[in-house]
Amino acid sequence: MKILFIMDPLEKLNIAGDSTYAMMLEATNRGWSVWWCTPDQMRVDSSVAVVECEKVETYTSAPFFNRGDAEDRELGDFDCVWMRKDPPFNMDYVFTTYMLDLAPSHTIVMNDPRSIKCANEKMYALQWPHLCPKTTVTNRVEDVVSFAKEHGKVVVKPWDGNGGRGILVTHADDMNLRSIAEIATGEGVSWTIVQSYLPEILEGDKRIILLDGEPAGWFNRVPCAEDHRGNMHVGATVHACELSERDLQICAELAPRLKEEGLLFVGIDIIGDYLTEINVTSPTGFREIADLQGRRLECELLDLVEERVKGR
Is there a catalytic annotation at residue 221? Predict the structure, then answer.
């Protein structure tokens, strides 16, 4: 197997918790040929997608990576190409998916770039409205204010954010409500997402990893006392948990679409009984699941990819 990771720079990875690192380590241990590059090292020559990439071997101890010299390679040189660049999901990210679309049919791209560009992590979930909290998406200040007056406590978040960036909690009687609405919408220029506040966030924000549509591992992220967000880098703590009947229902409803659209590796977020996000660009959580459940999802994921390559 010869695989390529299009990703953030190696020196920026959080080795202790990065799922891409876990995947690269497992691939190295299997004796696969592993290569990497950043998105800005992609280009197209005569309708052929080309990357300036390095061969890399990954280890469990410092310096963690043994890097080779940079070489130009066509995407068609690889059995599988992984798009593992972290959000934000901006136009630069979208443009990389156009170049990935040029990969030849014998090269598998995960997740499918045609689906990634259509599956914004916050907006995609709204295609299952009965699974989501009450939501409005608007660039009008008055809409934000009206939604808060109707629903009381609300969450305001940018449609293109990641890692909890820019998420605000406000309420109908908040004297800052209109100011928050003005900032969130850029005074009528930018779209923002407004959702009814889910008090169950105090009990945690559940992350479920789906491999080919099936729940493979999960954990709960409980916000710290000083922050309402269930994101680990702002102080949320990780705990073991069980899947509820509602969790399983949500997974089952998503599965057919995820499989059909080539979204092999997905992380969904659930607060209480509601789906809040479907993460398809660079989902993570392997290291936490290994610690809490003893499952090495990187092994299961690479097994799935190997089966698909052999089936072509």
Answer: yes
